[in-house]
Amino acid sequence: MKLTGSCHCGAVHFSLDSDTPYPYQRCYCSICRKTQGGGGYAVNIGGDANTLKVRGGDAIAVYHAKLKRDDEQRVHASTGQRHFCRLCGSALWLFSPEWPDLVHPFASAIDTPLPAPPEYTHIMIDSKAPWVEVQAGKKDRRFRDYPKESLAEWHRRLGLSNGAD
Alpha-carbon distance 157 to 43, whole Å? Predict the structure, then answer.
């Protein structure tokens, strides 16, 4: 599926191909919650990094989240690159060098109508803000941290993918 997206002010427009376009996963971690400004969670989807085309790249800035492991005192920068519009602050996509073939656009930046998922996966629930109520349906899955099932595996399990990763 061809996806198009943009920031709020219109300075950045992008497109990419996705074999996993269902916005199924709601992440409640503090990074997603604080950089997205959503309902206490962020939703990202998968796309083919090799097909990413960007117009307005000079308006893009990159944020590397600050991470601190439970067993460490020092803070280090995440390798994940959270791209956002430096003019309006809209979160656009996440790219991680650990998975160079993937880019994860935030569903909130996608302008193409996305398909409604038959179920949601709620992740990082232990990190949610106290004011956030997890509104999960009967089929939805909940995880205290990250599930083992990948984005591509979720799509295949539900018969929503053409089999590509």
Answer: 19
